[in-house]
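Interim report, section 4.2 (structural modelling).
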Amino acid sequence: MTPDDRSAGLLEALAALSPKLANRATALDREGRFPTQDIADLEAIGGLIASLPRDLGGFGLGTEPGQGLQLLDYLEALGTANLSVGRIVEAHINALRLIMRCGNEGLREEAASAVRAGGLFALWVTDAPGESALRFEREGGALILRGGKAFCSGAGHVTHAVVTAAEAGTDAPRLLMLDLDRGERVSPLPTAMSGMRAAVTGQVDFTKLRVDGGRIIGQPGDYMREPDFSAGAWRSSAVALGGLRALLGLLGNALVVRGRDSDPHQRVRYGETLMAYRTGQLWLEQAGQAAENLIAPPEQIVATVGLARTIVERACLDGIERVQRSLGLSAFLSGTAVERVARDLQTYLRQPAIDEVLVQAGGYFMTRPDGLWGRRS
Ligand SMILES: Cc1cc2nc3c(=O)[nH]c(=O)nc-3n(C[C@H](O)[C@H](O)[C@H](O)COP(=O)(O)OP(=O)(O)OC[C@H]3O[C@@H](n4cnc5c(N)ncnc54)[C@H](O)[C@@H]3O)c2cc1C
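Predicted structure of the assembly:
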């Protein structure tokens, strides 16, 4: 079976599983509960090993070139079913990608064998404020950690995390691969997020944890190396676009059920949202291909992803507004699917440095517009 066949099989299995994920999402949100069953179901259809390279037992989804479109379909489908599940799997893919790109053979093999045994990875890079930021000192062959991470999705539930940590006396952050449940302290955020509650985003303190020096992934500066550092954002946009797709489905159903589907204003709002959704998807096709295949100069890949990310954000924000306008107060009834998806999507769209992204992309293409016209390979 080729990797394409395996990815197609995964997408088919996910299509069959998605209604279950969507049905469970309301209770998970209400209880702020981690989607343990959903992740187990995804594991059962190969959804967690899919991102391992082929030579380590996976399909290379997100870790090998040539699979941008399949990865877009996978992440978007997850986001459509439940944005929190999409966020958790996106982080798993991002973490594995870093290990596979920068790690030595021992770490790559170790990570792969953990995933083959059902392990789930997180990527925690957002530091706790000030002096609490994660750092480490060397003691013999070991690393002694101090400080912690904020905004840790899956905290207390994932089995492994890739974290950034500064080495004492140096500036460039290093990447560490950590097995979890070894004495780190997990706590909720001081103030809970209003959306994405099932992603269970907390804070983790690693102070006094001692880990083997061999847990350092790659070289100083690897984490922020472009184009991967910025271009990886297309994957979170793919999940977000799935949220917009879910809203379109909910809106269409609600209008039909209420007998309001032939009203021209409702049709125009629906059509506008559909166009914006498809525009975002076309942009992500181009950005995903560029980012996964590295087919253009790094700055151009980053700029292409920046434009795609901005367009998807705009499409989602406008889509939320139109859905709320179309359904009125019923879009705000707590615990309904439409209220939850809109709340999750608004929260998930808050990704780093959105203004800066458009400044970079606009500046890049101002003198090189031809970079965008080329067809995707
Ligand atoms: C659901 C969810 C799960 C998450 N899970 C994780 C996780 O598992 N691991 C992890 O590491 N992180 C996680 N994060 C955090 C995430 O990585 C970002 O830190 C966070 O989303 C940043 O959002 P922000 O809107 O506050 O960004 P900011 O970059 O602070 O942007 C806010 C606004 O400030 C502007 N701005 C940015 N920088 C400047 C500046 N220097 N001067 C002036 N204006 C500026 C931006 O353009 C924007 O308008 C998660 C976030 C969410 C929403």
